[in-house]
Amino acid sequence: MTRTKTRTTAALCAALVGSALLAGCGSGGDQRPDAAPGNSGVPHGYVEGAEEQPEQQSRLVLADAGSGAVHVLDLITGDVTKLKRGAKARALHTDGRFAYLDTPDGTRVLDSGAWTVDHGDHVHYYRAGIRDLGTIGGAAPEHVHADQALTALSPAEGATRLFDREKLEGGSIGRARTLDSGATGPVVPYAEHLLAAGAGDDRDRVRVLDREGTEVASLDEPCAKVLGEAVTRRGVVLGCADGALLVREEKGKFSAEKIAYDGEVDAQNRATGFRHRAGSTTLVSPSGADAVWVLDVTDRSWTRIETGPLAAANTAGEGADLLALGKDGALTSWDIDSGKQTARTKLLAGRATDAATIEVDTGRAYVNDPGARKVYEIDYNDRLRLARAFPLSLTPTHMVETGR
């Protein structure tokens, strides 16, 4: 096992940023209507049609690529809700509340009925009914991002479509607005603006757009060959050919900072897509077929850990181990600072497929096992102890966690 680590010294920014789960008090979106007038009699945090809860209401949306079955597993109660069978899902995305299934008929949109509203100094957790909102025609989304006002669906090629978040929360998809037919990369709603990466003739530029799609700024620092993006509390992270670009906003001004690799990294070993726990500033990405990059946004550092043939990876964040699911079906944990393996367990019934997923929240990790028709709940703080196993009546080819 070899390991390389690089650090880029930079001033740290403590500004919190907006995301699908981060919104200011009194604004629209998930917390609607959040702060009512004092004489209205409506309590702070009230959301019509939802129940506020004392803890995160985690749910797993599971899709069977073979049969078209879709189930929602409630991790609080253990109950499974079976939705109407539809076209077979080829991929599955989430923005923390809604699930988007890529099918031959279009993008099927599901409201999981579980979400979190983070105001920085306090948090609201909500649960509501599960709803099937219908199907969006057109190109399948490669990237899905949202904030309190907009949801952006960006295909691999072609125009990004913007949807009104309030209408989605009300149970209807609504009419999409086409943002930019020349865009070729992800569009991320951020700080009441839109970040458009890899767009237009100058593919290395990251543009800042207003809500209507008009360019209001262009960042000086380029990001060539964008591969992967993530919204964190310290800003939006874009994967670039030479490392990562951290985009931040403070008092209406946008800035970009490059977190570079230490030296040249071959194209096949670059970070290709980020995974992380919601709210965390530690990101992971595959690096080739048998290693993982760990990007610490706070420290501006990259760490590469050779894990062996890799199917999926994730981490709970600062101070937590890297979790890696091998092609052989074994789950391992790695100390990121030392690069040493700390625990290993043979988890899956057979070999892991390309659709293998590790979802991580503040106390548990979840791994889908299509071969055994199960989902495993792992206590990653207790040497990968199997806490629960959920038998299913569908093959969980695709899985996302909502309620975050």
Automatic annotation (TrEMBL):
Coiled coil: none annotated. The keyword Signal applies. The keyword Oxidoreductase does not apply. Keywords: Signal. It comes from the Bacteria. InterPro entries: Quinoprotein_ADH-like_sf (IPR011047). SUPFAM superfamilies: Quinoprotein alcohol dehydrogenase-like. Residues 1-23 form the signal peptide. Residues 27-55 are annotated as: Disordered. This is ABC transporter. It comes from Streptomyces koyangensis.
